[in-house]
Amino acid sequence: MDLKTKKKYYNLCDPYEPLMPEDQRNVDLDFLGEEGGRPVRGINWGDMLLKEITFPDRPIYKLFTGHRGSGKTTEFKKLAGRLYDPEECNLFPVLIDAEEIIDLENPIAVPDIISSIIYSTEKAIIQEEGGNTEKALDEGYLKRLWNWMKNTDIELNKAELAIPSAGKLVYEMKTRPTLRQHVRSIIVSNFSGFIKEARNELESLNVNVLQKFGRDGIVIIFDSLEKLEGTSKNWYDVLESAELVFKVNAAYMRLPVHVLYTVPPALSTRITDIDFMPMIKVYDRNKNRHEPGLAAARELIRRRVPKDILQELFGLNPWNRIDDLILWSGGYPRDMLHMLQKIIAVNDHPLSDSDFEHIIAYIRNQYRRIITGDALHWLANVATTKDLTIEGDVHLRAADRMLNQHVVLSYLNNDSWYDLHPTVYQIPNIKKAIQDLEKELQRGEKNHEGSGST
């Protein structure tokens, strides 16, 4: 295979590229599964979200999570298209990418999120009208907010806190921590007034989309907040700020319009009523192959790499090795594509056993580096029970890191269940921790039997 061909398919398998719904590589997993049975991710996620938004008479507040690279953004784009369709829902969806307007490496706060929502909604309405976005935003809500804050605190009039224009306030807050903290402190001093004004603004915008476009209401989809993670120095501060925003201050995050927020997977152990979009189920809890899931994953690969190229990569009968790749990924699309890129990049094809083992070892070592000693017992418990049992702060902190780093993957049958990433089972410390826990459980059963017979 020449370099040009390798490069073409390597980039078609980019695990970090969110796909547009119309992209030929996109596989609608909601419609793949057992005949007459459940889809390969447990439920039809698109239909479920659509119904939860459109059925209630009152605005919904929804928290949603999933591992990065599991297909959430593509699902939200499809959902936005269905919500916008006049024949289906006739709503006005506003899809927000948190990476563009929020500093995801530092703690967040309610004012950051609320001001970003109003800014993004105003911008979407102006774009729908075909107006001058920059000029209109400079004269809208952010201008009134900025003027109010300058009148409240004269410090904002100093040069070091100045901004180019009111319409750029959200972006300036993202990139300038000093300004962000100052804005937060001003808003906190008159928090109820800020919330009231924000709600009034959204209600007014909701009326606008009805009067101007004949739309039946606004739907906010705030994507990419699951990437809120921080650095090694402030990891827990960042996570705790998300818990404060979406749990303690949930009442302020409920808006007079429909709103769906993504949140870090770690919050699923801290906040109830978070929907967790699972992996493709390629095996069951007992490690038996799940053929519908394998078929769906094969289709995901086929959409990127045609059969003749797969035969060049793997040999004339590529499917056994491709199934091995899928099973080693645990049904995690990002790792599946990551391994496929590694396979395309090797020097010699068809892929040899030693090259394949090297690629699996590479993935395993990526996980080994992020597993710390205090997480071993909890991970062994997940491997044994297929559940997220939390016993104290040590377990909670282990769960936070291991869920966010997709060391632990989520699956769904009738009930949700969890498992370690398949490569993690090969890590010696994990193997030993599982063996030790199994022995401990066996001793407990024998002691229980002994006490029952006396």
Radius of gyration: 25 Å
By CATH, the topology of the largest domain is Rossmann fold
Helix content: 40-55%
The SS-based structural class is alpha/beta
Order of helices and strands: HHEHEHHHHHHHEHHEEHHHHHHHEEH
| First-last Cα distance | 72 Å
Strand order of the largest sheet: 2-3-4-1-5
Broad CATH class of the largest domain: Alpha Beta
Tally of structural domains:
3
Query: Averaged pLDDT, please?
Result: 93
Strand tally is 7
CATH architecture of the largest domain: 3-Layer(aba) Sandwich
Portion in beta strands: 5-15%
Identify the overall geometry.
Answer: globular
What does the main sheet amount to?
A: 5 strands, parallel
What attributes characterize this protein structure?
single chain, 454 residues, alpha/beta, Rossmann fold, Arc Repressor Mutant, subunit A, 3 domains, 5-stranded parallel beta sheet, two-stranded antiparallel ribbon, 7 strands, globular
